[in-house]
Amino acid sequence: MNAEERPHDNYFSEEMIILALQSSPDPTAIYTGEEMIIRFANAGMLALWGKDISVIGKPLIQAIPELAGQPFLPILEQVWRSGISYSVADAPARLIKNGMPTTDYFDYEYKALLSADNKTWCILNTAKEVTSRRAYLERIQQKEEKEQALIEEMATTMEELTSTNEDLNISMKLLEESREHVKTIIEQAPVGIAVLQGPDHIIEMANTAILKTWGREGKEVIGHAHHTARPELKGQPVNMWLDDVYATGKPKINKEFLVKLRDGGGLREAIVNSIYQPIISSGKVTGILVILEEITQQVLDRRKNEKDQQMLTLAIDAGELATFYYEPGSNLFSGNALLKSWFGLSAEEHLDLSLALSSIHDEDRERVTDAIKESLRDGSDGQYSIEYRINNPQEPSPRLVQARGKVFYGPNGKAATLNGTLRDITEQKKDEQRKDDFMGMVSHELKTPLTSLQAYLQVLQRQANLTDNTTQQNVLAKSIKQVRNMNSMINSFLNISRLDSGKMLIEKSKIDLQQLFAELEEEMLSSIHTHIIVFEPVQALTLYADREKISQVIHNLVGNAVKYSEMGTRITIACLAIDQNRLKLTVSDEGIGIASEDQHLIFERYHRVQNPQIGSISGFGIGLYLCREIIALHDGQISVEKSNSEGTTFSVELPMGN
């Protein structure tokens, strides 16, 4: 038959071969050149390495640096130069998976593919993970060796004491105990094991694990032919594999095989790893050892993790985030291509911690080093958050970045890795500065006319109070209230300007908290009619602080609670002594709460919480920022004590002072 008579050959292209390799259930990769450039790796090989598709096109040692010091690269180089393929079974390999070093065992082959002139043009790498199989077979071998030793001991005893029936009985008992011991091990094995005898595959033994996977009880299958005991396998290849193993004496190994198993009165789909091992006696196959491990949940979890990883990668790319990974034990530091570009490196160049630190602005380097050490310190909360500048020789000015990370701990409770992201906030800070400059300018320009307007309105209000014109009185009262609100807003902007310039002064004096709370209660009850304002009774406490600034903090927190809770709900203000030197102020509402991801951001300047339930609420995002800065100037702390669907509580802790 010539080429014209086989049109389907035209479709067997290089792309189809690659597609076939991608679909292979076995991990597969292709390398070229003496540097072993990774030209192809399917999903199985990427999962085995614990890497993603970004390693394609990189030298193997750069993509998987943990291979250094292991025999794989020298073997690959020998295969490349000699053109002689290499394969091995049960070989150990040390890899990093999910951030943790692991040692697994593999059957793998380096297949040299030769050109017409017998030169190696690529190496095809296939692998199978056999860690579980190896561990189990080692146990079986150990028990068989123990049984063989007992058998040999019994034979010796029988030869020495053939004249004594009693000694013969003792030896037979030892043999029976050994067999029972092996049966006990098989019964308690964590994987499913069954022994099939003869060409009909009579089920001689089946442990609890395999019976559970089969969805059967022992009395249903023991002593029966496999194909009659398990009719649900009709139309599936299992029985055909058993026949083939018995006929050829060659084992059959399946990885992540999809099979339909009995489940009550119906069938369920399961994913299993299986080994069909021929049992050979006197050179003849007498049965088959079946080893079965169900991995349905593990595979589903892995696929979910892969999907989550893809979604995370999309989110990182969309958010233009640089990512980093630091392993303090080995001082290994790595990052994505964006992070390398920020530090002035190409995607192929290696990035280590010392190089990254040297690129940080001189004034920021020590702060960054201290922040990393603090996050890794025993007893810390493992959080890493800092802003600093990066000097890139290829860029005219430093790049300002915001770094956030979290420490992950090993089984020993020690810090294993520090993972996180970097966000470029250069333009954001410039925008904030421009906004601050504008607010400061506008605030100064508005201050004088507003003061005059308030004075004119107060004059009109005094004149209106001498008449019976209640409408005019109400309008003027509301106008004066709005002017005061505008003055309060302008004062907030001016306070921000003073903070930035270091000119905000704290004028401390002794404050009678009972008197302060009484004044605030009277003021708020007369001005807030949309909510139930409750001031809890206050102890006789004296606080040494700036009275105006502390009042402003309470006003801001109550105003925030009014904005973000429904009309008619309760807002509670309380104060209590923590000890002889510190006190705590709390403002609680019954609002919608603050999402966990926003709780560490709400005290940032100009930050506005985005929540579709509440729509758009007026404001500039400076109230809580001012509260934080004022409390910090008093050596205190402000935080979200709790926040859920039942409401939010803000907590302010202050030293009582002298």
Give a verbal description of the structure.
The chain is of the alpha+beta class and 658 residues long. It has five domains: 3-129, 2-Layer Sandwich (Beta-Lactamase); 134-299, Beta-Lactamase, CATH 3.30.450.20; 319-424, Beta-Lactamase (2-Layer Sandwich), CATH 3.30.450.20; 429-501, Signal transduction histidine kinase, dimerisation/phosphotransfer (DHp) domain (Helix Hairpins, Orthogonal Bundle); 509-655, Histidine kinase-like ATPase, C-terminal domain (Heat Shock Protein 90, 2-Layer Sandwich). The protein contains 20 helices and 22 strands. The strands form five sheets. The protein has a five-stranded antiparallel β-sheet, with helices on both faces. The radius of gyration is 38 Å and the shape is elongated. Residues 1-9 have low confidence and may be disordered. GO terms for molecular function: phosphoprotein phosphatase activity; phosphorelay sensor kinase activity. InterPro entries: BphY/WalK/GraS-like (IPR050351), HATPase_C_sf (IPR036890), HATPase_dom (IPR003594), His_kinase_dom (IPR005467), HisK_dim/P_dom (IPR003661), HisK_dim/P_sf (IPR036097), PAS (IPR000014), PAS-assoc_C (IPR000700). It catalyses: ATP + protein L-histidine = ADP + protein N-phospho-L-histidine. Its EC number is 2.7.13.3. It is an enzyme of class 2 (transferase).
